[in-house]
Amino acid sequence: MASAAAEAPAPSPSPTAAANSRPRRVLEELSWDDSFVRELPGDPRSDAIPREVLHACYTKVSPSAPVDNPKLVAWSQSVADILDLDHKEFERPDFPQLFSGANPLVGSSPYAQCYGGHQFGSWAGQLGDGRAITLGEVINSRGERWELQLKGCGKTPYSRFADGLAVLRSSIREFLCSEAMHGLGIPTTRALCLVETGKSVVRDMFYDGNSKEEPGAIVCRVAPSFLRFGSYQIHATRDKEDLEIVRHLADYTIRHHYPHLENIKKSEGLSFEAAIGDSPAIDLTSNKYAAWAVEVAERTAFLIASYTPNTTDLPGKRYCFANQPDVGLWNIAQFTSPLTAAELISKEEANYVMERYGTKFMDEYQSIMTRKLGLPKYNKQLIGKLLNNLAVDKVDYTNFFRLLSNVKADHNIPEKELLVPLKAALLDIGPERKEAWISWVQTYIEELVSSGVPDEERKAAMNSVNPKYVLRNYLCQTAIDAAEQGDYDEVRRLLKVMEHPYDEQPGMEKYARLPPAWAYRPGVCMLSCSS
Questions:
Q1: What's an example of a GO molecular-function annotation for this chain (predicted)?
Q2: How much is the pLDDT for 14?
Q3: Are residues 297 and 346 in the same domain?
């Protein structure tokens, strides 16, 4: 929530300057906490034998992935700055040993979390951290809490039939995607570093019986919390006594991650009163759990209005582009269900949470689309026609919206020149479709002229929300191919480009190109989520 600006404020320090002003710590000086382990019920066993773990939020278990001369593939400077970690630490000879889990980090208290969840719409029961182990929570100099987690570091009780390991290709994708999404301004899990283990992992990439050995790897993921909706769901599906765990977990989450909701007042934060139909008004100031659920729903709506994951899913499938808003609402319904079962919120409050999701999604979506087009206000008809044109002609969204800022607010542009600024995006369109696009551009220019915003001012604003660079699958694959041969330079170059996706970055234009023909082969355009 923004605070009112004081008169004539002093300039804010740049992110780089702010990071440089923080204390720099070596690994042994990190300030660790173990609130999750300390405050929540745990598994009395600490072995990694696959099993159902009851009445517990976690199991204490240590990394066990085999390693042999592990190597640091890449690391994120901005994540190191979040943790106040001295950049020289990444040059330590033992750094790969520490972040492959071969050697324990001083102060860490590793555990694997217990949670359940749905897979493709069906309840799958207990899932849990099957190949991820949280090392603990680091408190930085700002008092922020950041959990560090190693993914691919060995078996846990939640591994089921799997080996708890990860391969280099999927780990590179996760590392780069985490940081690329952050660069785009999308709230997401971050990644501190990526380590190749030096040992092979057997994988059947296409699930066709042709297994082969691949390089193993481990990503160090970083987030304020790795709690998920399934962390609450699993306990609500078990014995009645486990509903108390839902309450404990909700209290823990609010205490550490939503402390502003502990003692909310009518004048603070969310708009706390609303009526649903003929029902009484919902007063969220009287129930912190309902206020929390609303904030979670609104954050989810913001995320989905900003970003569409899993673009490799086919049209019409569960996680395809068009289904994201509905899937998000469905997820919120699954989140409110255990809260209702534990009597933390009423059914009326649960309905209101879902209503707020829909309202927030539409507000954010309209705001984002308005800014992407450089318009002064939302124009449903103009944007609807544009989205239809983009879909019909299979136009690349990223490149189109970036080029759109080059259209001038000028009624006098000859018709034959109207599409010139968009030529690189409107490929292979016939005369009929060309007419449709000319018609749309003419209407768009009318909107621009009426807004009165100078072209250069609008262009700068549009380029700040329409990235030039996005992490395309083929770019990842190029980096993966090199890394599997021991060359990590392309992973590091790609990371640097994706850290600043809205900048022009002269000399990096090749990273904005459309996918080449080879990028449509299986393993590049269609991926497994569990490699």
A1: ATP binding
A2: 57
A3: yes
